[in-house]
Amino acid sequence: MHIRKKSCTFAGNLLRTMQYSVLHLTYSFAEDWQQELFEQDLCDLGFEVFDGTSAYIQTDVWEDNRTAIEELIANTEGAAIVSVEACPDANWNAQWEAEHEIEDLPLGVRIVPHCAFGAGHHETTSMMIDALLEAKDTGLFNEPKSVLDMGCGTGVLGIMAKKCGAEHVMAVDIDDKSVANTHENALANHTTLDIRLGSTPPDGAFDLILANIHRNILMEQMPVYAKILNVGGQLWLSGFYAEDIPYLSQAAEAVGLQHTETRHTNEWQWIRLKK
Fold first, then answer.
1. What digits encode the pLDDT tens for the residues 53-82?
2. How far apart are CA 56 and CA 50, in angstroms?
3. Residues 240-272: tens digit of each pLDDT
4. In degrees rounded to 5, what are phi and psi of residue 180?
5. Whole-number Å distance between alpha carbons of 103 and 75
6. What's the rounded Cα separation, in Å, for the pair 32 and 48?
7. How far is CA 65 from CA 43, 59, 68, in A?
8. Which of 70, 97, 124 is the last residue of a domain?
9. Which domain holds residue 71?
């Protein structure tokens, strides 16, 4: 199973002051990925925040999608609704930030996730950051490099690439909330990114492409990555499991990309491809 880690915040914060409802759930999933996949399905139906087993959604969205949400939960083994209640009007964003410390990442980067994935501490993001720091230390960015952060979420990888010495960084995401969050985080971290809203890789020529997305999207977009990657350039992928690697490697080889390295943290995988 594969998880699209987008358009939702896990124990995160809401951007606006408005009326929300909270579903109190109970879980009995055998594996962590089952809960993550279930919560992603809830994201697709409009939920914005998960804090433990409490799931927050705008009240009007809950009312519009209630039947579909209840059917999803009823048909999901390992999840059940305990209760539903209305939340009082509040600035949830400010409340969350007051209750949760934002940790510094390497190079002094600070990311406020809002309604996008990528505070910098998930295994997939951490592996990307570690690889960027290694690239900085080994001189990859000593010469001007153009970087694409595809599926940028909060913009954390694009910001880190810029801090590591990339000359030009383009950050792209399908979600307008992620694009807004990337703008905010880039400004807060005193970095300049070329930030765009879109579902497919843009035209251009890049020396390094970072894509922390689930396997199906990576497979679909592999030919485009190969097209816009400069000869000698690298494509770093994460957001999938060990059993996905043979499929990704085969798709990469078919378009002239060579699989040169694999890393993992827990069950999550990272691979390096070179053109």
1. 888 888 989 999 999 999 999 999 999 999
2. 6
3. 999 999 999 999 999 999 999 999 999 999 999
4. -65, -40
5. 37
6. 19
7. 12, 10, 5
8. 97
9. 9-97
